[in-house]
Specification:
By secondary structure, this protein is an alpha+beta fold. It folds into two domains: 3-248, no CATH class; 256-380. It has helices at 12-15, 76-89, 99-112, 118-126, 129-132, 142-155, 177-194, 213-238, 252-255, 257-265, 270-283, 334-339, 360-380, and strands spanning 3-11, 16-20, 33-37, 48-54, 57-64, 95-97, 138-140, 164-173, 289-294, 298-304, 311-320, 325-330, 346-347, 354-359. Strands 9-10-11-12-14-13 form a six-stranded antiparallel beta sheet. Strands 1-8-4-5 form a four-stranded antiparallel beta sheet, sandwiched between helices. Strands 2-3 form a two-stranded antiparallel sheet. A hairpin with a 6-residue loop joins β13 and β14 (354-359). The radius of gyration is 22 Å and the shape is globular. The protein starts with a strand and ends in a 5-residue tail after the last helix.
């Protein structure tokens, strides 16, 4: 079977666009940017290894597995690189924290505040934890916080895409999907066994030499080729099916609630994908609202409010694979929905009980009206959760 590794370098400014927004009330005051893909092209899909450089320094190594049923698919810019720029600059509007990450950061600030830029220390002091502790789709870690703090000291917090570069080594092969995904996972394990970039979460961290771009390109090709050969040798020796068990990941882009939702959407019809992208972009401009995700999986439109919870759910969207449609849950009345070309199709048992079915043709013909309905739900939602 064929097996080749294609490696490319991409300055962040060539593949990502950044725009200024207002920060969320109660969040980090400096988290006021959004990062979006600047290009869409098949070259940015496919299973492989990638790296993030800031200047000449390697700060992160990761893997991308493509789609579950198509390792050559997906969009690494949207699903990985925009999120890394958001976390390593700490400027993305939808920055989120796990309880563990926020606790580690808070403890670090208490003990080492003199080593942290004043703007960061003040931002965390003034932010509300209930707002920070949301599953936003751009979750950071303690290690990334440390790297971001160091970058802040060099840039004074300014976002300069020219400072960042990506290296992307992806597999071109006719091997089965599961085998390719397992090869990539094995190659990442090998890379992180000998290279410990500061931005990776590594249990037994040690000081290691960090390769330059040209050196890493050779290493990536070697890791992927060796992983392929070891799988082939294993299968030839045993005469059995190739092992495709994945090593569990600890990085949020691969394990979070947003990943579960977006894995469904990325294989949905293009109209559904574009609609979800439009929803996310639209709510990036709404000062008191945010997009969150749950393990259901679903996408939730939330309004930030004072109080212990910190938000109220205005509407949810989930993808129904069997019916190939989105399910909208809200408390919008029949008349409110009718104004947007929608209706209540079913009354469910959840708090957001009014359910509307959104098949792909409706998304194509009434996408803008549906977003208006979401905005209305955000504006009229009362304090029930």
């Amino acid at each position: 079977m064929s097996f080749d590794v294609r490696i490319s370098e991409y300055p962040a400014s060539d593949v990502v666009r950044v725009a200024a927004r207002n920060s969320l009330d109660g969040s980090l005051i400096f988290a006021d940017q959004v990062f979006r893909p600047a290009v869409r092209h098949p070259d940015f899909g496919g299973a492989g290894l990638y790296a993030v450089f800031c200047g000449a320094e390697l700060i992160y190594i990761g893997k991308y597995l493509g789609l579950q049923n198509d390792f050559s698919g997906g969009n690494i810019i949207d699903q990985r690189w925009t999120k890394h720029l958001g976390t390593f600059t700490m400027r993305t509007r939808n920055l989120g924290f796990s309880k563990r990450a926020l606790a580690e950061i808070t403890a670090h600030l208490a003990g080492c505040a003199h080593e942290i830029p004043t703007a960061i220390e003040t931002g965390f002091r003034d932010a509300r934890s209930e707002v920070l502790l949301q599953k936003t789709g751009c979750m950071t870690t303690f290690q990334r916080f440390l790297v971001a703090s160091r970058i802040w000291q060099q840039t004074n917090g300014d976002v300069t895409l020219d400072d960042f570069k990506f290296v992307y080594a992806k597999i071109d092969s006719d091997l089965p999907v599961g085998v390719v995904r397992a090869i990539v996972t094995k190659a990442e394990d090998a890379a992180l066994d000998i290279i410990h970039p500061d931005g990776n979460t590594i249990a037994k961290r040690r000081d290691t030499m960090l390769p330059r771009v040209t050196e890493l390109i050779d290493l990536f090709k070697g890791f992927l080729t060796d992983a392929n050969l070891s799988f082939k040798a294993w299968a030839d020796t045993r005469g059995e099916k190739l092992e495709t068990t994945m090593t569990p990941s600890t990085e949020p882009e691969e394990t979070g609630a947003a990943c579960k939702f977006l894995e469904q959407i990325v294989v949905a019809p293009e109209a559904a994908q574009r609609f979800i992208e439009n929803v996310i972009e639209r709510f990036d401009t709404v000062d008191d609202s945010t997009i969150n995700y749950t393990d259901t999986p679903d996408l939730r439109v939330r309004r930030i409010v004072p109080g212990a919870l910190g938000f109220i759910n205005a509407a949810t969207l989930s993808w129904q694979v069997r019916h190939q449609r989105l399910l909208l849950r809200s408390l919008l009345s029949q008349s409110d929905l009718a104004e947007c070309g929608l209706r209540i199709d079913r009354v469910g048992g959840l708090v957001l009980a009014h359910e509307s079915f959104l098949p792909v043709p409706l998304l194509e013909s009434h996408g803008d009206q549906i977003i208006k309905a979401l905005l209305k739900a955000r504006a009229t939602r009362e304090s029930r959760n």
